[in-house]
Structures are given as structure tokens and as C-alpha cells.
Write a structure and sequence with these properties.
The structure is a single chain. Helix 1 (2-23) packs across helix 2 (35-51). The chain is of the alpha+beta class and 113 residues long. The two termini are 14 Å apart. It has helices at 2-23, 35-51; strands spanning 64-72, 75-83, 94-100, 105-109. The chain is globular and about 35 Å long. The chain contains 2 helices and 4 strands; from the N terminus they run H-H-E-E-E-E. It has a 4-stranded antiparallel β-sheet. Strand 3 and strand 4 (105-109) form a beta hairpin. It has one domain.
Length: 113
């Protein structure tokens, strides 16, 4: 479990720069993204994780289950949730993608923490 989480985090770290560019063009003031934009960015993160072989390709057709802002130790983040019941390991059927309020991907895991 710990190794798979490290792999997911590493994959996201590699992909983060490209997501920042798509969320904010040159000269933008880093305004907060909308819920729809957060969902789009998180969906792109899932696609990148699939392409990198970090998660199963069955996630490709999974749509956003939920997107909400959550407080993590005084810092608000978007948490976008995906559910994939075709994954055999029940502990890995829910994938959480975390973004700053300005749309920067900061991580993903199966725990939501």
C-alpha cells in the first residue's frame, strides 16, 4: 500500500507543471478555480496517472463523484473524488485528487487524507 501511494504521488509530481500551465495562462493573477475547473484538472491528473502506468486503465471512464473544498490544517484545498467499483481491492476503489484553490495539483491518494 505504501509503495503504491508513493508511486501515485511521484506520478503527480511529474505531471504537476503541465497542469499549472493549463489552469493559468501567462500573466494570470492566480485566481481561485471554479468547481468545474477543479474537476477538469483532477480528471486530467487521473489521465496522466493512467498514461504513466500508476493506476489501472479502468479509471479512464470514471467520472467525478464529488468535488468540494476542505480545510487541511488551516489551508483550504479542492478534493475531487472518483469511485471505481471495478477495482478488486475495495481500499483502492476511491481515488482522491487534491488541488490548491488556484488549481495546482498537490497530490492524490486512496485515503482522502
Amino acid at each position: 500500500m505504501r509503495n503504491s501511494m508513493k508511486a501515485v504521488m511521484l506520478g503527480l509530481a511529474i505531471c504537476t507543471a503541465s497542469f499549472q500551465v493549463s489552469a493559468h495562462g501567462p500573466g494570470d493573477s492566480h485566481e481561485p478555480v471554479t468547481q468545474q475547473e477543479a474537476e477538469t484538472l483532477a480528471t486530467s491528473a487521473v489521465s496522466q496517472l493512467i498514461a504513466a502506468g500508476k493506476i489501472d486503465s479502468s479509471w479512464k471512464t470514471i467520472r467525478v463523484a464529488n468535488a468540494k473544498q476542505k480545510d487541511f490544517n488551516g489551508s483550504m484545498e479542492w478534493v475531487v473524488t472518483f469511485r471505481n467499483e471495478s477495482v478488486s481491492d475495495a481500499a483502492k476503489q476511491t481515488l482522491y485528487v487534491f488541488l490548491t484553490l488556484t488549481g495546482e495539483i498537490v497530490g492524490a491518494n486512496y485515503t482522502g487524507q
